[in-house]
Amino acid sequence: MSYPGYPPQSGGYPPQGGGYPPQPGAYPPQAGGYPPAAGGYPPQGGGYPPQAGGYPPAAGGYPPAPGGYPQAPGGYPPQAGGYPAPGGGYPPQAGGYPPQPGAGGYPSMPPQAGGWGAAPGGYGVPGGAPQGYPGGPAPGQPMPSYPGAPATNPSMPGYGGGVPANPQAPAFNKGFRGTIKDFPGADPLRDVEVLRKAMKGFGTDENAIIELLGNRSNKQRVPMVTAYKTTYGKDLINDLKSELTGNFENLVIAMMKKPAHYDAYELREAIKGAGTDEACLIEILSSRSNAEILEINQIYKAEYGKKLEDAISSDTSGHFRRLLISLCQGNRDERETVDISLAKQDAQKLYTAGENKVGTDESQFNAILCARSKPHLRAVFQEYQHMSGREIEKSICREMSGNLEDGMVAVVRCIKNTPAYFAERLYNAMTGAGTKDRTLIRIMVSRSEVDMLDIRQEYLKKYGKSLYTHISGDTSGDYKKLLLKLCGGND
């Protein structure tokens, strides 16, 4: 079943306080209009004031070309008919493009389906309303002559020392990269009727369950639990467990949990009982954001009566325990900017703590890998390779062993390229004797609304066959059908 884009909403895009009211004539703002954003360009008659050297460089932005953007009379480059203003676009205004709120004052682009400006979990403009740039001009309008990339020889490099601004970061498309989206007009009360009918009477209609759950986002699936109890006075999870079996049951139940509840449950399962699933602990704690980890901590304590840190501490030991405890604090620096001089210093510290001494200072590795931001660490890993002639993972393998080695390498790989890390985890789960179904289910469910499209790309590039094909050959029945729904298609 295909699922169209974001559901249309009555009245179109909800009005927001402070939005742009149409104004005849040129900017500056009038009474009631949009106030100039802090850090933005001051409104002046005739467009942007020319500046020596072009736009001031912003952190992470394009390096300014010599002379900056060409200064056209009247502000932004003139176009026939002005800036295209289809439904949802900006009206043409004399005097140039109006400043909009955005980092550094740079004008924000209108939100597009899957593009910059889409809200987390959103899928572009309601009702598929056509937009202005970058989606293209309205019918009958000429293509806008938007300035291209910076000049061949920019006046200033965007990143110190000639290092790329986002070292070793995968060149993935931006915007929503999941495979499961909100289904237009979904209603939990109607959805639970479908589930009830599928489970009622003799036998179970598994296909109806697959079609429903495989076409609902997590925020549309979770309310079904309350809606089911409200409508039928029964527990949906218990009914599903009584009707389904095996890995198909486990997959369905996993899909009905909120992400943080599911992560807390998986961490609990990885710790309790005989043996510990160290790879699961590292996978979750190294790939979640600070906010997600803090929420997991709260839920773990509420659900299991024990702090996650205490559970980890009692089940692990040594430097591996310290690595996990550091990660579960949810206190990593999350700034996007990179200081290349600090990255070089950190690379030198890692080299001094490992390859360049007898023995290994594991604490130094722990301090840098668990506290620094991910963009910063990508720069550190690149500087380390320049300095030592060896990738950081290989140095870790030479210097450490056992769970600590596995944990440190996993953290590095997850930071370097998260989709590639999950592609490798999926491959290992389906290769060899038997299938690690718990790992397969956890990754397919938890990444289906995050970066599954990117994981599929990495999988095909690294292993020469699609994730869809591998799942098809390694699983069967209703379990396979629902996994393939989460996969989202073949490559």
UniProtKB/TrEMBL annotation:
Residues 136-147 have a biased composition (Pro residues). Residues 1-176 are annotated as: Disordered. Residues 1-13, 28-41, 49-83 have a biased composition (Low complexity). Keywords: Annexin, Calcium, Calcium/phospholipid-binding, Repeat. Residues 114-135 have a biased composition (Gly residues). GO terms for cellular component: cytoplasm; nucleus; plasma membrane; vesicle membrane. GO terms for molecular function: calcium ion binding; calcium-dependent phospholipid binding; phosphatidylserine binding. GO terms for biological process: cytokinetic process; phagocytosis. Belongs to the annexin family. A pair of annexin repeats may form one binding site for calcium and phospholipid. This is Annexin.
